[in-house]
Structure formats: structure tokens, C-alpha cells
Here is the input.
Amino acid sequence: MSDKVEHDQPNLSSSPQEVPDHIVSPTPDNGANSKSGNETEVSSGAAINAYSGNNTSNVIMPAADASTDVVEEEASPEKVEASKAHRHVKSFWREVLETVLLTIMIFFLVKGVVANFRIQGSSMEPSFHTNQLVLVNKASYFHFDVNSWLRLVPGVHPNGENVVWMFGGPHRGDVVIFQPPDALDEDYIKRVIGLPGDTVEIKGGKVYVNNVPLDEPYIREAPFSPFNATKVPPNHLFVMGDNRNASRDSRSFGMLPVDEIVGKALLVYWPIGDKWGPVPEVKY
Here is the structure.
């Protein structure tokens, strides 16, 4: 029997965004007076009589530009209050928009790193029980193959894989969420027993890693069936359930490819009780 975990997705909603007004102010044009030829400059309001033969002309020059008085109208208290209220409304919606955008950013950031799962089954008892809710760190086992990038370089043909773990990779005793090789549409929870290069064997009710028996106080009971010594291949793990006699694990579906790991179990957050809290660290 194998523990499965179910994954829930939350919903988001966003608030409308207010579009600010655009104000365009006109630019004044200044005229220019020019003089040329034999123009005669006169004072404002002056008249010139020109005599040529028997013809007489009276020329009236325009008055000089007079200064224009601009009277500024003082804003009424009602207009001042209305302006303040408008600014307060714009400030309020701007803060709402900023809060919504920040919430969305934090949500996607957290969602990319942490996921929540529900335990279904008894294969990890007594450490985990059905209907417990677990937080999982999806970034714990982030890794990439350096050789896959090197193959993009012309003339470079590296052999095999060269996996780099950004945060140290899996350790013996870690509790992991993964998709088994023969059921990629399901999520299982098990404990890491063997790392790449380790030799795992079960005999006399004891689990041996590299010929060293493990001290496992967390299991329900000793395993009944033996398991022949098997070496874990590169980029694979050997995983088992804590309920050794009621667990479908690497003894059934074989070695677990590291690419199928979803993340590391961090915290049991519901229900609150004896098993509530951080998942205990096990080292061996």
C-alpha cells in the first residue's frame, strides 16, 4: 500500500486599475514688432501731417501696447474641499492597486517554492497519517545537467550526465514527495534510504546501506521480506515507506529517478496534535 498526496490550487482575484488623467497646457505665442526702411517712430497717440504737392495725408499711429491686468480668482472653500477629496480617492485606489500587485507577486513566488499536499494511506505510519496536510519545499532539490548545456556548444560532446544540485540535493532520511516511475499521474510520499552509488540490502529484519545496518526508530515494524543487495545507479534514489510491510516503494517499482522528485516534506500543519510541526530530520 502506498501513501498518495493530493494537491489543491487557490484562486486569485484582482482589483481594477485606475487610469490617470492627462493634462495638456497651451503654450502662449509672443508677437514681435520690426522696423525697416524709412519708418518714423512716434510716441503713442501722435499724428503726422505729410505734405507732398497739393495732397495732404493725416497718419494716425496706433497706441503703444498697454499692460494687461490679470485678476486671479480665489478658489472657494467648496472647490478646495472637492480637490482634496479627489486626491484622497486617487491615493486610495493607487494603494489598493499596489497592494493587489504585491500580493500577486508574493503568491506566485511562494507558489513556485512551496506546495501543500494531503496524505492518503498508511505506508508512512507511524510518521504520517491519512488526512494530514503537509507543506513541501519544491526548491530543495532543484538541479540541472551541466552536460546538456555543454552539448549546445559546437564541437563539445560530453558523455553521460553531470547533475548539479543548487541546494545540496537529497540526503538519506529525507521524506520526499515524488511521482513513481510506473504511475506518473500520482504523488507518493516515502523516505530516502539509498543515494546514487549506495548498495541497499534487507536481511534478518534489518536494512543495510553499504553493509552498515540502519538505526530506524521511526518505522512501525521490521521488514519481513528480504531484499537482495542492489546498487543505486547514478541520478536515482532508493526510497521506502516507514510502514515497511505495507508500503509500495523501490522494492516494487524500482529505483526512483531524481527528475521525478517534487520536493521535500517540511511541515505538518494540520491537524494540530502530536504529529503537528516540522518534519523531524533523520541522518544516517
